[in-house]
Amino acid sequence: MEAIREAIRIERLSKTFGNGRKALDEIDLRVAPGEMVALIGASGSGKSTLLRHIAGFTASDAQPSQIEILGRPIQQNGRIVREVRSIRRDIGFVFQQFNLVNRLSVETNVLIGALARLSWWRRLCGRFPRAERALSRAALQEVGIAEHARERAANLSGGQQQRAALARALVQRAQIVLADEPIASLDPESSRRVMDMLRALNVEHRITVLVSLHQVDIAMQYCPRTIALRRGKVVYDGPSSALTPVLLKKLYGDDASGLLDDTTRGADETRDAHDAPARANTGPTSACHAFALSIAPSN
């Protein structure tokens, strides 16, 4: 069996919103299996929009284009494929606002990642086999919050909730993790722990990680490769170590200062209004409902 050469393959991806603004403009991109790649750019550069297209949450413009996940098309020519649910089983999506169900326990939130493997009646009533519960406990232990397994998710700090989201990706057995500004609302110590966890997923589990960040110093510390977006275009794709202040000034002009200033973390995270509903934690009333939202196809 031939090895998969690319975890993510994007060709000629464009997205134009209803107001005529081009959020993505002819994106071509390749990410190899096992890479850990940073996606940087000022607010409104297209980072979140790109990640949502890769996950099949949003359809691109109706023009020749393609996104493949592990060799399988997830959308083509502006249409999301019918098999999107099965493809999404390989994608763990980590949201800035954690996307946990606050009234459920931490363990149940993590077990949501296993629902796709269960029979329909177990999914319907949220009954998890012992093997899946053991996997959940192991994942919570790995991310360092096993002692909080029985607590409601709402009781955790922001950093702990984000680590629970990473544990859910482990239980899901995702081969790719897309992390959308996972540290934007966290304090420096929590940010470090979450980025350490992402690196552990990449190094120890060989999971491909594409993480959008607002801080170049974090990208340089954790990701060997960085992709920089500006106004929906890729303006840099190469070694993170080459992102000097001079180069960033050349790429971003006055916006470069925000990418270099680590003290402004989370201060300028205003996103495109089109993405806001998808980031809101609407509080699904059951684990099955939460999973249904995570895999539902976009039209």
UniProtKB/TrEMBL annotation:
Residues 8-256 form the ABC transporter domain. The keyword Disulfide bond does not apply. SMART domains: AAA. Residues 262-277 have a biased composition (Basic and acidic residues). GO terms for molecular function: ATP binding. Pfam families: ABC_tran (PF00005). InterPro entries: AAA+_ATPase, ABC_transporter-like_ATP-bd, ABC_transporter-like_CS, ABC_transpr_PhnC, MetN_ABC_transporter-like, P-loop_NTPase. It comes from the Bacteria. Keywords: ATP-binding, Cell inner membrane, Cell membrane, Membrane, Nucleotide-binding, Translocase, Transport. Residues 259-283 are annotated as: Disordered. NCBIfam families: ABC_phnC (TIGR02315). This is Phosphonate ABC transporter ATP-binding protein. It comes from Paraburkholderia translucens. The gene is phnC.
